[in-house]
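Deliverable D4.2, example record:
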Amino acid sequence: MNTFSDFVDLVRDELGLPVTVEDAELGFDELSGWDSMLLLWLVAILERSTGRRITVPDVLEAENLKSIYALTVSD
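Output generated by the structure prediction step:
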């Protein structure tokens, strides 16, 4: 996962959620099919694919998928 587009592809492929780059800026309540279990799955998938630890409390504060991506790539 090197780019934001790669991140969106990962979300779409791994979670089966039909999201686009544009959808990633929508609030979670606006994403069709989104639920809290997907959030936990996403954390596990991101940790596995990046080798980085991603804390659930930080992710819970995220407003949208783009915010989660920012957490994933921040140092």
